[in-house]
Amino acid sequence: MTKNDLSKKTLIAGQTTWLQKISPVLRPGHHTGYKEAPTFWVEATRSIYDHELVLFGNGDFIVEIDKQKYQCSSKTFIIIPPGKEHKTINVSGRPAFRYWVHFDWTYARDFRNTPIATYLPTKPTERLFHRAPDFVPDIIFTGKMSSFSRVLELHKRLCERHNYGNNHEKLTCRAILLEILLELLDERIHNIVIQDRTQKLTSNIRQMLSDAVDDVTAQTATEIPSVQKLLADTGYSYAYLYRLFKKAYGVSPISYINSIRIERAKFMLQDTVLKISQIARKLGFESHEYFARLFRKSVGLSPSEYREKISINN
To answer: 208 and 168 share a domain?
Structure first.
């Protein structure tokens, strides 16, 4: 595929008015996320049954779709439709991040009995494909992200709500996904400066705080460092960063960290059989007594009372 072909396909996405008709729906379950692809990582060839938006962060990838190769460098995106044989290769020469979300452009049917993917040499079941509506251009959407930090911030919020939020928060993910798709595909925003310096700074702080919780939950770190230590390398005083963050999000940095931990604790209390002390450790709390006090202050119930209430309601 030539560069001109790629540019032409990318341009089509912005020139049409079809974006006014989309109302995207996320696939339920943990099919929204991000991961660092190791050096020379190759994804096995497969066909998916819905659509997959993939964002590329800090490296170079090749996405091969039906034998056509798409060069996906840093800060680019691609949307892979159902029924296309494809694989992704990290050609960066170093580990590099990918971010993804599985979705449909509109709600046509639910995802029950719909497989995620079929890997070669097995052939997929075509009648189960969630194909795009007729008004969506029949092309491979791909291109450069004009506001990478903005899109990444939205994807981070999408992951938190879709993977760890309550039913209402999961429902709001449709609005976040719509915003992401418009950021990527609407040509009218490409010449607009989305974020000023302070917005970018607060966005970066929020990502750093979220990553610290992720590291503990994934057990790549044993505890969450102090907020002052986390933000020490930004080059700004903690007092200044505190004011910026509080103005942008309405809470202090430590309150933001604790809100993520409490939301994940609620998920673990509902969907796992881990002991309360195990959940506290997994979320980086020094003691389960402190975790219990913070949980009661936030939720109005102790962790054990919350688990019992959820169990009765279900």
So the answer is: no
Q: Pick from 145, 172, 189: which residue ends a domain?
A: 189
C-alpha separations of 308 from 184, 278, 282 in Å: 44, 17, 20
Query: Do 269 and 160 lie in a common domain?
Result: no
Interval 55-71 mean pLDDT:
91
Q: Is the pTM higher than 0.85?
A: no
Instruction: Please check whether residues 171 and 230 belong to one and the same domain.
Output: no
SS (H, E, C) 145-165: CCCHHHHHHHHHHHHHHHHHC
Structural domain range at position 204: 197-313
What is the tally of structural domains in the chain?
2
The C-alpha R_g of the chain, in whole angstroms, comes to: 21
Q: Where do runs of H (alpha helix) occur along 186-283?
A: 197-217, 227-230, 238-249, 253-271, 276-282
Mean pLDDT of 203-231: 83
Decide which of 223 and 52 is more confident. 52
Contacts of 176 (CB under 8 A, 6+ apart): 154, 157, 158, 161
